Amino acid sequence: MSEETTAPYGPTIKRVRTAHLREMKERGERFSMLTSYDMLTAQVFDEAGIEVLLVGDSASNNVLGNTTSLPVTVDELIPLTRAVSGAVQRAMVVGDLPFGSYQASPEQGYLTAARFMKEGGAHAVKLEGGIEMAPQIERMVKGGIPVMAHIGFTPQSEHALGGYRVQGRGDAAERILRDAEAVQEAGAFAVVMEMVPGDVAAEITRKLQISTIGIGAGKECDGQVLVWQDAFGLRSGRMPRFVKQYADVRSVLLDAARAYDSEVKSGEFPGRDHTF
Ligand code: KIV
Question: Which UniProt keywords apply (predicted)?
């Protein structure tokens, strides 16, 4: 069966590709993206019909327990990327290039991105930055690597940006628009916009031919992305305003762990059914 059999893309499509996202934008259809860092969540999200899975550098916070995304390394992210790409049938898997692995030069960026494709099995890579990252994007695209850009609030630059804050308010909107145009011009197939005012993101979405993906950027983007532990309630504590919580996975796990602990301690588990 061909990959382009039906639209909208249901079970008949084999793999979501950059061309499909472009066609969805042309038809005014939205798509969804979630982070995933392991085989089992990748299978679930793929089955749910999520078009794009991002093996985010947010694994630094959400898997490895760091307080920012800065410490995570290429060697730490590649095995996670391989787990996700090996688990999905339909979703596009995007590997997130970590801090310091591409900013130094287009050549450095290309070599890192190639590792995500070869060793991680990623279908595309994501990098943070706008105009200043255009040479990196061009180099990767020339070398056959699809690139998703990430502008607005870029967590790898949290210290340079002065902390977590909305980008592109007032006069700064022009800068975000120029970043968006620059990454499109350089050959990116999509651009994540993080913590950008909704009206600015809407204007950029109208102006660009490539897909925009919002996280705290309002409803007019072509797609939306959330970190799954935030969206499905595995993480506890204060959430950014843009997160909607769809489930309370932490409570389910906590209850299950408590029930197991109590049955082990009381001698109820394992019972006859679980004994050879
Ligand atoms: O690493 C990540 O999770 C991301 C998303 C927030 C877009 O970059």
Answer: Cytoplasm, Magnesium, Metal-binding, Methyltransferase, Pantothenate biosynthesis, Transferase
268: domain range? Answer: 248-275
On whether both 158 and 225 belong to a single domain, the answer is yes
Pocket of ligand 1 (CB under 6 A): 35, 54, 56-58, 96, 150, 192, 215, 225, 227
- Residues 118-130 have a mean pLDDT of 98
Confidence of residue 7 (pLDDT cuts 50, 70, 90): very low
Contact indicator for 234, 244 with CB cutoff of 8 Å: no
Please indicate, yes or no, whether residues 180 and 261 belong to a single structural domain of this protein.
Answer: no
Contact between residue 54 and residue 11 where contact means Cβ atoms under 8 Å apart: no
Active site residues: 194
Displacement of CA 2 from its chain's centroid (Å): 27
Ligand 1 closest atom vs CA 57: 1
Query: Does residue 9 belong to any structural domain of this protein?
Result: no
Question: In angstroms, rounded to a whole number, what is the distance separating the alpha carbons of residues 184 and 201?
Answer: 15
CA distances from 122 to 59, 145, 182, 190, 219 (A): 16, 10, 24, 15, 27
Mean pLDDT over 55-83 rounds to: 97
When divided into structural domains, the chain yields a total of 2
Residue 210 inside a domain? The answer is: yes
